[in-house]
Backbone:
């Protein structure tokens, strides 16, 4: 199928984003939620910041909200701490705890052409609750009537949850708390009621039994969720062997709901695929990608903070053209265009 | 504090329970839900059955519902399979999959004195859905108005979920599906609405970040759940160092809600504790056990299918006396009495 990466990629890099706090640097600007807002394309960027470390040879710094203060604080771990593992640059791992080396917030960027963005100087949503002490990540924006709902990952010592916030103007925000308990990622709301009810995709991450698979859930009020159903699972040994989860907010096509999702191998090679869900009952999978519709190939995808990653939180659909905004190598923001008919033809 | 184990313990052993299927043997009869039903004490026993293996030196047998048939089938794994791990008698572990060596259903037992039980010949609830292919486990019974609600673990290749069923007579059952997605255990409903809403305890089991801790959730209809809050966590190095989760259905005392919970060390030494929750807002922990209120000491607790386990799914409260029914060593059913004031005095 034909994929047209924007020649201007990456559209946004960490260097384009001003740190939100003194003594911090922006490590990654990626995984943006995206929506049309008035005449603009609006991105809600995940901005990962880390404290500037004067002694990177001696210690690793972990930023987090203080347990009492709920304000950013920095914890320093000597590199010769017993049992410390810093082999993955994103995390500091001990046998009984895992910390993040950066703290993420959500930042707005605006564009008239979808290519050139003006990035806000300050965060739109900054971690502030006990469930957000390690940061807030990977927002998906869904417009329902006149309100924009954002489902995002709240990360804290108590776990990884899916939280809901809403806004009408991207200025005043309401937080609605945890809608899916640990450990859950990659949740997003469908843009319309289905048979009178709200639906969401989500991705539980089980410990003992089962793989990180896509599930569907239902709600009457967007706050309380039930009717959980398994939707799409990993396939051992394939590009979907390690994990699979929602990507862009599903959108309506003639044949049903089209959802761009992500999948990764056990070696964390992240690609995008597409799945067609029944319009009246999206727990029914009608067709899905056999091969990725987007795989890490460009240098900004194959090399970066975490190499070989394409990961999306949203797309803009105009007529036949789907513009997928995506995080490249967990570092920068890119976009690629493809047509709905090409996507449909690629599924089996 | 004074704990009076029943001299008749264990009250029910696997030998007392008739297998539900030909070619199977009852391995464990344990972790019963318990409720007063008319003049009787009614137990809903978790009965774990395994296929009788003619060649235990050569293979291990795994019972599960067939993917298509949703009827019990047996899968045989040679003991010399690559990467097989059968060191834990409860499970067969491969690098990318975990199977159970038994399949559990729920069986009713009835008693007028709470000591001598008559056990049904046939299951009350047998695994039957795609989310129950490995069995149904650990029921907690809550009476709300004239209906008995049972929250139980549904185990399948897609994960460990919390499911809801209801009955008015323990004869006709309604299944309401998954109320909490993977990986979740030890959920139970409070016996009354609190400020007009239903509440539940649950125990997410996270993979990457966080411990297996107790959480609280809210619902208007028992089907859709939200407002998730962290309630009670593990304490490194203590009797609560490995995991902590709900036990008996919480009951009303003068000072709030009293919940008997379970906790285990990292070495799976399972004890019971008690926690007092605010009556109007049970997400507030008022007091809790510093030491276990029940720990494995009797021979039937320290030795069995899984030694050193006491685990409860329910208690009967009459005046000042709490009778805890519990699984002993993951094998049999026992009971112990203690007074509310003793429990209250034991908390700090």
Residues:
């Amino acid at each position: 199928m034909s994929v047209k990466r924007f020649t201007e990629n990456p559209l946004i890099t960490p260097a384009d984003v001003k740190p939100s706090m003194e003594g911090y640097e922006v490590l990654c600007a990626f995984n943006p939620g995206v929506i049309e807002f008035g005449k603009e394309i609006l991105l809600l960027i995940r901005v990962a910041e880390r404290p500037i470390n004067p002694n990177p040879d001696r210690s690793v710094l972990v930023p987090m909200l203080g347990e009492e203060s709920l304000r950013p604080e920095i914890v320093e771990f000597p590199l010769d701490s017993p049992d410390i593992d810093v082999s993955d640059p994103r995390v500091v791992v001990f046998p009984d705890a895992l910390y993040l080396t950066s703290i993420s917030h959500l930042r707005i960027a605006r564009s008239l052409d979808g290519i050139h963005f003006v990035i806000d100087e300050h965060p739109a949503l900054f971690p502030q609750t006990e469930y957000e002490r390690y940061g807030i990540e990977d927002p998906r924006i869904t417009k329902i009537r006149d309100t924009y709902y954002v489902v995002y990952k709240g990360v804290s010592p108590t776990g990884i949850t899916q939280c809901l916030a809403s806004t009408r103007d991207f200025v005043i925000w309401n937080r609605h708390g945890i809608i899916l308990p640990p450990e859950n990622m990659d949740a997003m709301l469908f843009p319309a009621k289905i048979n009178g009810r709200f639906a969401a995709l989500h991705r539980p991450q089980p410990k003992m039994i089962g793989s990180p698979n896509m599930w569907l859930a239902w709600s009457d009020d967007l706050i309380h969720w039930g009717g959980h159903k398994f939707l799409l699972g990993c396939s051992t040994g394939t590009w979907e062997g390690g994990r699979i989860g929602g990507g862009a907010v599903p959108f309506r096509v003639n044949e049903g709901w089209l959802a761009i999702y992500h999948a990764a191998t056990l070696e964390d090679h992240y690609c995008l695929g597409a799945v067609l869900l029944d319009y009246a009952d999206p727990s029914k999978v009608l067709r899905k990608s056999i091969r990725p519709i987007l795989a890490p190939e460009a240098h900004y995808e194959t090399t970066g903070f975490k190499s070989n990653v394409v990961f999306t939180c949203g797309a803009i659909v105009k007529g036949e053209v789907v513009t997928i905004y995506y995080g490249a190598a967990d570092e920068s923001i890119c976009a690629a265009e493809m047509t709905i008919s090409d996507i449909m033809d690629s599924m089996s």
